[in-house]
Structures are given as structure tokens and as C-alpha cells.
Design a protein that fits this description.
Number of domains: 2
Number of helices: 5
Strand content: 15-25%
Shape: elongated
CATH architecture of the largest domain: 2-Layer Sandwich
CATH class of the largest domain: Alpha Beta
Distance between the termini: 21 Å
Radius of gyration: 19 Å
CATH superfamily of the largest domain: Lrp/AsnC effector binding domain/regulation of amino acid metabolism (RAM) domain
Largest sheet: 4 strands, antiparallel
Helix content: 25-40%
Number of strands: 4
């Protein structure tokens, strides 16, 4: 991967719909060269997909939470499989930090969010649920969560 590839990635991260011709002009290479580079980045798994960035609040989700879940080690993978099925879980990761599992949860309101956290608390092996309500995004966005993994 060279500087041109990094520039392509940067441009696509800012606008996944950027035209190949614009990338080509920016880099001083042909459209065909851009297409070949993008295909190579895709085949190498560097570019994993293209998504629309949405505003959860405008979709009716007024309560967002980064929620850490502490779980008994024997139940970790069972819990992850259960959480993967939940529509309200928009992002899910196994971590080595303060919590074994981190989730991003979208809820319609505070009451729904409370019910979701209660539901997770009652899942087998869960020791503790630690929600952090998102008040404001300052840099980046969590609104691209739920991108299918290959």
C-alpha cells in the first residue's frame, strides 16, 4: 500500500460515493488505475464495504448507549451470539478493557433503553451492565454501526 492508496482510502472515508474521476484527478492518475487500486484494496480486505451514515435521532432513536457488559468467561461466546441477534445492538465487540463485551445500543427513548439494559442483565452469565449514555458526538460518528462482517 502506497501514498496513493492511502489518499483513495481517505477520500472514500470522507465520501463513499466520491466519483472515480474525482479521485483520479486528485491523484493525477487514470480512472482505470483508480478502479484497479480500489478493487485491490477490496480484495485485500482493506476496504470492507460502503455504507450510508444516518442520524439515529432522525430515525426515531433518541437514546444511544455505549454499554459495557461484564460476563462470566464460560458464557462469553453464548452472550455474544445472543446479542448479535438483537436489533437494538448496532455494534458489538469482545474487548480486553474494563468490560468483556462492548455494545452500541439504539433505543427509541430512555424507557426502552432501560428495558434493554434490564434484558441484557438477565442473560445467562452476565455479571454487570455498565451503560454510558451518549449525549453528543464530538468527533466521528457511531451512525455507521451494523455493517455486516465478512
Amino acid at each position: 500500500m502506497d501514498e496513493a492508496d492511502r489518499k483513495i482510502i481517505d477520500m472514500l472515508m470522507k465520501d463513499g460515493r466520491v466519483k472515480y474521476s474525482k479521485i483520479a484527478r486528485e491523484l493525477g492518475i487514470s480512472d482505470v488505475a483508480v478502479i484497479k487500486r480500489i478493487r485491490k484494496l477490496e480484495s485485500n480486505g482493506i476496504l470492507r464495504g460502503y455504507v450510508a451514515v444516518v442520524d439515529p435521532q432522525k430515525l426515531g432513536y433518541k437514546a444511544l448507549s455505549l454499554t459495557g457488559v461484564d460476563v462470566e468467561p464460560d458464557y462469553l461466546f453464548q452472550l455474544v451470539e445472543e446479542l448479535k441477534k438483537k436489533e437494538y445492538v448496532r455494534y458489538l465487540a469482545i474487548t480486553s478493557g474494563d468490560h468483556c463485551v462492548m455494545t452500541l445500543i439504539w433505543a427509541r427513548d430512555g424507557e426502552e433503553l432501560r428495558r434493554i439494559h434490564d434484558e441484557i442483565t438477565k442473560m445467562p452469565g452476565v455479571k454487570r451492565v455498565c451503560p454510558a449514555i451518549i449525549l453528543e458526538e464530538v468527533k466521528g460518528t457511531l451512525a455507521v454501526a451494523n455493517v455486516p462482517q465478512k
